[in-house]
Amino acid sequence: MTLAGTLEAAEAAPPVESLDVVARMLKEHLGAASVSFLITDFTGGSVVRLGTAGSVETGEPARRISLRGTLYDDVIRTQQPKVQDGAGNALVRVLAPVTNRGDAIGLLELFLPAAPSAQVMREIGETAHALAYIVIANRSFTDVYQWGRRTTPLSLAAEIQHRLLPASLACEAAQFAVAGASEPADHVGGDTFDYVVDRDTVQLSVTDAMGHDVDAALLATLLVGALRRARRAGAGLAEQARQADQAVRDHGRRGYATGQLLRISLLDGRTEFVNAGHPWPLRMRDGQVREIVPEIDLPFGLGVHANTYQVQSLDLRPGDRLVMLTDGMLERNAQSLDLPDLIVRTRALHPREAARTLIGAIVDAGHGHLDDDATIMCLDWHGVDRPQRDAATGADLTDASHPSSTGAPAPGR
Fold first, then answer.
1. Which of 47, 151, 281, 387 is the most exposed place for a label (fewest CB within 10 A)?
2. Are 278 and 259 in contact (CB under 8 A)?
3. Is the dihedral of CA 148, 154, 159, 163 positive or negative?
4. Which phi and psi angles does 264 have, rounded to 5°?
5. For residue 149, what pLDDT is reported?
């Protein structure tokens, strides 16, 4: 059960059976009664057990196991393995998180004849980590993993919308942790979020295309495609916004979309953003949540002439949590919610769990129904390691002109 052996066995199997091969290896190696993998669904509120390839009936909806109040929920939330002793002669249950860079993909569940030793727990943890890479490597070749994440059938608009989201909904690095969550409305709107980590920057976006159902999903596809094309060509935020505006004008059938683009340097922490008619972000610092009030430019595609977009600086310090959202998080059914208070109360949670909790509160406020998509991105900024930063920039940046790394005030709104 070495890591290399596990990956080699998985690679030799068909994509749909790669997890089964690893499960059988682990079962034989540990003498387990059973070993299975459970994948988290799109909502983050349940898991689905993926059995052997022959037992996965993808023609039927996946069987949803609710997480609330279960040991599964505890393992995903804490990202720590758990052992549940069996009473009398009962088997011992072991759960380990299957996670990669903060993206909680699922769980590894085993039933053992006896309590595991520290060495066995290490092997289980290493195998669970390997499973995360196996899922990532194989999910592009089969629909089984996508099937497992759909506990309710998706509409065409929802299918399009989900395909616009990043493959991993959360990411961790030394300087930051980020996660997004989105809950489609009864009639899907055009909400999306996106992020990318480059060598020197992390870039985030939250967008909201006008309309509902397929028309909104198609407009969102156009918008996200334009933003990604410009970003991947190395364009700065102003040019990304300009190209998105032009694409919506040329092909958006008189539609428009709001959006917010964010770019953070991983070398010195400098942060810049563009706001295209989008709801203002919220920043939590020292236990207090405040709106960041930017200069606001027109939404993409709105107005008679092509729009120009101003790049603004944002004061982001180590320890800050930044929340970017769409107007579905502020809809009338959610007015009874004190969103800033909820952000404070979820501060101890990982951005992944905080985003899910906030989305869940909005859904509960609407009694399970939303008039508009609700989307959120939650970013924790840890700051830049000073020696690493100085080595990368070739300078000593301890002066006040680089406050975002040191915690001193920075220019911005």
1. 387
2. yes
3. negative
4. -120, 130
5. 83
Q: What is the pTM of this model?
A: 0.86
pLDDT at 271 over 90: yes
Residue 111, token pair as written in the block: 């039933």
Q: Quick check: 339 and 284 in contact, CB under 8 A?
A: no
Residue 325 and residue 279 in contact, taking contact as beta carbons nearer than 8 Å = yes
Count other Cβ atoms within 10 Å, centred on residue 188: 27
Judge whether residue 294 has pLDDT over 70.
yes
Mean pLDDT over the full length of the chain:
88
- Of the listed ranges 85-94, 133-142, 232-241, the least confidently predicted one is 85-94
Q: What is the pLDDT of residues 168-178, one digit of tens each?
A: 999 999 999 99
| SS3 of the chain | CCHHHHHHHHHHCCHHHHHHHHHHHHHHHHCCCEEEEEEECCCCCEEEEECCHHHCCCCCCCCCEECCCCHHHHHHHHCCCEEECCCCCCCEEEEEEEEECCEEEEEEEEEECCCCCHHHHHHHHHHHHHHHHHHHHHCCCCCHHHHHCCCCCCCHHHHHHHHHCCCCCEEECCCEEEEEEEECCCCCCEEEEEEEECCCEEEEEEEEECCCHHHHHHHHHHHHHHHHHHHHCCCCHHHHHHHHHHHHHHHCCCCCEEEEEEEEECCCCCEEEEEECCCCCEEEECCEEEECCCCCECCECCCCCCCCCCCEECCCCCCCEEEEECHHHHCHHHCCCCHHHHHHHCCCCCHHHHHHHHHHHHHHHCCCCCCCCEEEEEEEECCCCHHHHHHHHCCCCCCCCCHHHHCCCCCCC
156-202 per-position pLDDT tens digit = 999 999 999 999 999 999 999 999 999 888 888 899 999 999 999 99
Sheet holding 170-172, edge to edge: 170-172, 176-183, 374-381, 321-325, 282-285, 288-291
**pLDDT greater than 80 at residue 402:** no
Judge whether 210 and 401 are in contact, CB under 8 Å. Answer: no
Q: How far apart are CA 117 and CA 295, in angstroms?
A: 58
